[in-house]
């Protein structure tokens, strides 16, 4: 049954122009009810591991990816993976998250499009979910990850680590399952989505839905992809991931003389286009080639609903329940999740062991790019 399900997921992903590599799969629910009351299932999770789980299963580290990440935290472009590992240089033998010491687990998130059940998966009726895939929350995603841990026999993680959307899930893990982790590292995120973050995500969702090929979310049946809308959404998002200073230093007002590979330069000619336009277009096209538009929408909506204090008396009361020893990291130039948001988390945590700000011109993406500085802090935290 599981193998048939995995084949169905893979077929749906390739139909949508996606990639599913040689990952491991686990069925964690035959039926799952979302926080908003929708029934869905079965739920399968794609995940990857590195290192060896010790006899008492106490050396596991859970790594949680960001919005367009996946289970491929470490590795090359191989086995069907469209991109290299998104945290190469940080996880591995002798590195900050040392796989000689730890068993590292990285699952693809519920609602994703890299093997875990999501909008491009096959529903029980044999058709792609598409628009029928329900709205989900960060708490739903964490419930699925918790079920995976139980399935693997991991009762308590040595650490849980994640940034951005992954950081949202780290916070939910710590509050929902206080005994499930000894330590945690939270990077580049806030305790709740801010008005500006919601606005940015909402605009990206509108861009995708306004594409004529979106077809109400059921574009799979017509053999089309809302590529233009998804590309624009990614370009807007990527702009928020970088800092004004970094963009000025890299591009300024320079013109693009040689376009990025396969870049579309909008309606302007190559000679008249600014380099920064080509840069954004390049990143938009790259995402279209590997990510599902419906997944982008559902995951963005989940991020918009993020509020670790919802129904818990506010974020301070919620974080006061945390028992794990937590390290909080911010990026100095992050304009999407400003450092003040990480400071607020650190101040509310009774078990905060350190709050660090990495000096970087990169912006929000610094939590992915500044591997040496981030790695040094994580090494100390673990």
Automatic annotation (TrEMBL):
InterPro entries: AB_hydrolase_1, AB_hydrolase_fold, HAT_MetX-like. It is found in: Cytoplasm. Its EC number is 2.3.1.31. It is an enzyme of class 2 (transferase). One of its GO terms (cellular component) is cytoplasm. Substrate binds at residues 234, 365. Residues 248-267 are annotated as: Disordered. One of its GO terms (molecular function) is homoserine O-acetyltransferase activity. Keywords: Acyltransferase, Amino-acid biosynthesis, Cytoplasm, Methionine biosynthesis, Transferase. It holds the Pfam family Abhydrolase_1. Residues 59-370 form the AB hydrolase-1 domain. HAMAP family: MetX_acyltransf. Homodimer. Transfers an acetyl group from acetyl-CoA to L-homoserine, forming acetyl-L-homoserine. This is Homoserine O-acetyltransferase. It comes from Ferrimicrobium acidiphilum DSM 19497.
């Amino acid at each position: 049954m599981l193998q048939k399900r995995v084949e169905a997921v893979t077929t749906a992903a390739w139909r949508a122009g996606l990639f599913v590599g040689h990952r491991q799969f686990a069925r964690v629910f035959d039926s799952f009810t979302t926080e908003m009351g929708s029934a869905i299932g079965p739920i399968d999770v794609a995940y990857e591991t590195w290192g060896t789980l010790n006899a008492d299963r106490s050396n596991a580290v859970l790594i949680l990816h960001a919005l367009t990440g996946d289970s491929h935290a470490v590795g090359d472009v191989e086995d069907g993976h469209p991109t290299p590992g998104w945290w190469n240089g940080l996880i591995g033998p002798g590195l900050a998250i040392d796989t000689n010491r730890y068993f590292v687990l990285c699952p693809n998130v519920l609602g994703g499009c890299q093997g875990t059940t999501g909008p491009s998966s096959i529903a029980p009726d044999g058709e792609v979910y598409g628009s029928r895939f329900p709205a989900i929350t960060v708490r739903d995603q964490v419930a699925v990850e918790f079920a995976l841990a139980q399935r693997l026999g991991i009762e308590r993680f040595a650490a849980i680590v994640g940034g951005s959307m992954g950081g949202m899930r780290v916070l939910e893990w710590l509050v929902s399952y206080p005994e499930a982790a000894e330590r945690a590292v939270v990077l580049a995120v806030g305790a709740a989505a801010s008005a500006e973050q919601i606005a940015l995500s909402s605009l990206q969702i509108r861009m995708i839905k306004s594409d004529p090929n979106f077809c109400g979310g059921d574009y799979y049946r017509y053999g089309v992809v809302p590529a233009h809308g998804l590309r624009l959404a990614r370009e807007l998002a990527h702009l928020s991931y970088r800092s004004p200073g970094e963009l000025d230093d890299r591009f300024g007002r320079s013109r693009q003389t040689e376009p990025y590979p396969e870049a579309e330069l909008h309606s302007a000619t190559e000679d008249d286009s600014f380099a920064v336009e080509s840069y954004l277009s390049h990143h938009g096209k790259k995402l279209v080639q590997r990510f599902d538009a419906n997944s982008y929408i559902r995951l963005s909506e989940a991020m918009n609903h993020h509020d670790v204090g919802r129904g818990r008396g506010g974020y301070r009361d919620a974080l006061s329940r945390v028992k794990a020893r937590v390290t909080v990291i911010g990026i100095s130039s992050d304009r999407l999740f400003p450092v003040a948001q990480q400071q607020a988390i650190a101040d509310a945590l009774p078990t905060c062991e350190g709050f660090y700000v990495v000096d970087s011109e990169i912006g929000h993406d610094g939590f992915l790019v500044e591997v040496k500085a981030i790695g040094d802090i994580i090494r100390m935290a673990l």
